[in-house]
Structure formats: structure tokens, C-alpha cells
Amino acid sequence: MPYLDNFNRPISYLRISITDRCNLRCVYCMPPEGVSWRLHHEILRYEEIELIVRAAASLGISKVRLTGGEPLVRLGFVEFVRMLARIPGIDDLAMTTNGTLLAEYAAELAQAGLKRVNVSLDTLQPERFRQITQRGEFATVFEGIYAAREAGLVPLKLNTVVVRGLNDDEVVDLARLTLEGDWHVRFIEWMPLGTNAAWASDGYVSVGEVRRRIEDALGELMPAKVGVGNGPARYYRFPGAVGTIGFISPISEHFCYQCNRLRLTADGRLRPCLLSDYEIDLRTPLRQGADLAEIRELLIRSIGAKPERHHLDESVSPRERAMSEIGG
Ligand code: SAM
Ligand code: SF4
Question: Which residue of 59, 83, 233, 264 has the fewest CB atoms within a 10 Å radius of its CB?
Fold first, then answer.
């Protein structure tokens, strides 16, 4: 049974950023002045993460998502997936990726025990893809998406962060994909984090607005159920469509009351809430020889520190880290 936090929420999900490095530079994710990567020794070793996941599993955490930075740029990632897939109690092992290296690794990852992937895709226009990511090839990402579907890493969800003036004019085109095939597209509200926070007032688009624009163009959406990994998204589909549309609204309609997760940063900090800078250091105790029982206690402390909700509506936004360091 998952451990309950102080607000009776069962904590069953750990999101792990395994690297702060990325081969893209999405304008809404990385600070405009660029990022300086953490040094090698600051990043948790795979064995250290494995011990944390074992401790988490002993507390009833059954779902792990690997993210970054870009998880696939870290060497030895496939073997690391294999290590985690063997941990008893972890029955849902997923990854969030930008898709650029998926074509190369999808089959191996599935074979190693990865169950599903979410791919970030903010545009269907190759030129715009380059503009948003500041590098990267749209066609390569699509090859990756098809390779992942082929390898059985499904249901594969496409995540689109909607930013005004950047890609908000494409929400109807992205939604139309779900009429054309088995696509699951989720629209996510852009969140002010780190030094990108200044963008908030200009870039933010509520999912309510996104939904209105989609329904005005394509007709009414009906509530839908999606098999696994629902998380905070609300799902809909057009009548008769195979694909689904999800809306994730951390800002306009926060879903904190059903938050079930902890986050681990690449440098070994447990973050009870994405939108608060409060963190608990696991790396120092790990390197001083902490065993599973001690790490378990720190996980329990982190669960106990989960706030009831975030306070973005009172203009309290996290400043310390960019999204690429926390993993989304
Ligand atoms: N590199 C991988 C990727 O892009 O999928 C994993 C890490 S990325 C930080 C995880 C997710 O966070 C992506 O879907 C990305 O679009 C999203 N993201 C990044 N910055 C964001 C922001 N400020 N607000 C909302 N989502 C954001
Ligand atoms: Fe990299 Fe993902 Fe951030 Fe884009 S959203 S810069 S791919 S970490």
C-alpha cells in the first residue's frame, strides 16, 4: 500500500531526472542566458539511484518515470533501465523524452523493461521545431515516435506545452491528429520556473482557451478514459475518434489535491513539490554510506513535507532551478 502524506494523498509515483544535460534548448524550458551543466561528480550514479528506487518501492511507490534533461543522452541508460525493471514492486517504468534518440534506442529499451514513453512535441512544423528547440530535426523525432510504437512502448503520449506566440496557433492541427489515428495528444500549461518565470504573463495560455479553440474548429469533445498512467490529465475524444486529447492545467485548475508524486533531481535532491524550491538532500547521506533504511526515512520525511498545494496564484514561483533540471 502506498504511504499517505499529511493530506491523505497516497504517494505512489517517483519522477527521476537522471541528467540535467540535454541535446535541445527549448526556449520555454532553458533559461535564455543558457545553462551550465552540473559536474559529473554532482550527478547521482546509477547505483545510487537504484538504491533510492528500492527504498521507494519499499514504501509502496510502484511507478517510476525517467526524465531529464534528456534521459537518452546519458551513457549506459539502457542498462540502467534494466536495473530498475528488476526491482520488485516497480510495475510501471516509463520515460519522458524529446524523442531525438528514440529511433536508435526504442527496441533496446523495450527489451530492457521500459513500458511506455511520452514524447514532447510542441509543433508539427519542421522549421518551427528548430526555432523552438534551437537545434534538432523534426523528422528524427517522428522516426523515434514510430520506432517506439513499433517496439510496443505504448500508449505513447505526445506532450505539447502551449506558449502564446510560439505554437498556440497549432493546437487545432495537433488535436486533428487524434481524428486521423491512434494518437494521444496532451496540452500542458506553460509554468513559470527559474529565470524563465518572467515570461509567465505573456506566454501563458490556459487549457480552457486551448479547448475552446479546438472545439470551435473541430466540434465538441467527449470525456474519455485512457488505460494506464492517467496522472493529472483530463482526457477527451471526438466522437468516433481512436485518439485522445488530454489537458494538464497546473495553473488554471491545479490538481494538487490528487498529487501522488515525489521528484528526484539529477544531483540527488528530493523535491516534494515541483513548484516549490524546498528539497531534501539524498546525495550527501548516500555518499556517507547511508543504507536503504536511512534513505527510506528521508523519503518519508519528504512525503511529510509535501505542501497541500502550490502558490503560483499568489505569485510564489520556484526560482532555483530550470525545468530541465527537475524533469517536468
Ligand atoms: N527532455 C525531455 C523532454 O523534453 O520530454 C524530458 C525533460 S522535459 C523538462 C519534461 C517535460 O517538461 C517536457 O514535456 C517539456 O515540454 C516540459 N516543460 C519544460 N519546461 C516547461 C515549463 N516551463 N512549463 C511546462 N512544461 C515544461
Ligand atoms: Fe531539453 Fe526537454 Fe527541456 Fe526541451 S523540454 S530543453 S528537450 S529538457
Answer: 83
